[in-house]
């Protein structure tokens, strides 16, 4: 009687150890769910707006309705590199750049450098971008004058980039 109880107890302990070993040996990922959304595919620019503010009051919104023949794409990789293709309707692909999220995961920081039609030379359009919306199929980034503290009489310009995930590239 004691031997069957000891045997059952030993089997129970061994089964528990095997279960713990299997659970602990599973591959764990260090990538957050927000990072997975960024890297789950290629993002295509669907809309672009410029919003003009005085302080926190929106004065006007200009929606870009140009007939750009080049689709624009933002691609984020799991190794924290990214590229932007055809920025500002110029046929181009940025050199591989880096990307990261701030500690609170509300802002995107990239080192993407692109040719720009409005400036002589190049720009870093997404050096510091506020993540307004991020889902499986949509990404909205604000850039420009997005600092949290500003004068209520200051003129500001915020650029709103709306992206959609390309078909066939869901996470």
Quick structural gist:
The chain is 18% helix and 39% strand. It has 171 residues and is α+β, with helices and mostly antiparallel strands.
Strand content: 35-45%
Q: What spatial order of strands do you see in the largest sheet?
A: 1-3-4-5-6-9-10-11
Gross morphology:
elongated
Number of strands: 11
**Cα radius of gyration in angstroms:** 24 Å
Count of separate DSSP helical elements: 2
Structural class: alpha+beta
Q: Main β-sheet: number of strands, strand sense, barrel status?
A: 8 strands, antiparallel, barrel
Distance between the termini: 55 Å
The level of helicity is 10-25%
* Strand and helix order: HHEEEEEEEEEEE
Mean pLDDT: 85
> Low-confidence stretches at least 5 residues in length (pLDDT < 50)?
none
Give the SSE map.
Layout: H1 2-25, H2 33-39, E1 42-54, E2 57-63, E3 73-76, E4 81-85, E5 97-101, E6 107-110, E7 114-115, E8 122-123, E9 129-134, E10 138-144, E11 155-165
Antiparallel strand pairs: 1-2, 1-3, 1-11, 3-4, 4-5, 5-6, 6-9, 7-8, 9-10, 10-11
Protein described:
There is one protein chain. By secondary structure, the chain is an alpha+beta fold. Helices cover 18% and strands 39% of the residues. It is built from two helices and eleven strands. It has helices at residues 2-25, 33-39; strands spanning 42-54, 57-63, 73-76, 81-85, 97-101, 107-110, 114-115, 122-123, 129-134, 138-144, 155-165. The protein has an eight-stranded antiparallel barrel with strand order 1-3-4-5-6-9-10-11. It is elongated, with a radius of gyration of 24 Å. 14% of the residues are buried. The model has no long low-confidence stretch (mean pLDDT 85).
